[in-house]
Amino acid sequence: MLYEYKNTVTNETYTLTQTWEEKKQYLIDNPDVRTHFSKMPGFISGTGLEGKSDDGWKENLSRIADAHPNSALADKVGGRSVKEAKKASILKKRGLDRKGSYNMGDM
Fold first, then answer.
1. pLDDT digits over 87-97, tens only?
2. Parallel, antiparallel, or unpaired for β 2-7 and 13-17?
3. Distance between terminal CA atoms of the chain?
4. Is 71:65 a contact under the CB 8 Å cutoff?
5. Is a pLDDT exceeding 60 seen at residue 46?
6. Helix, strand, or coil here: 78?
7. d(Cα 54, Cα 72) in Å, to the nearest integer?
8. Helix (H) or strand (E) holding 90
């Protein structure tokens, strides 16, 4: 793995290829050297449901959304028809969006 270091005395920065154990020993042997990050590591390429998802994952999300048509996942992935989405929108607007739960207001 590549590790970036900075010498606190000379302000020199450099990169070494080492194992984790070698890095720990290197920092013990060189007290004037600290781990340095000149830029954030790019471990995560993206988040969310869009982007680089393979077809198997998309199919799985779609299957889950079909099983739960009133979920946020169904809204995002498209697990319901336009007619069902409009119906849900009207029910939500009128306070009837939960099964068996009705908003009667202040009676």
1. 877 877 887 76
2. antiparallel
3. 67
4. yes
5. no
6. coil
7. 21
8. helix 82-93
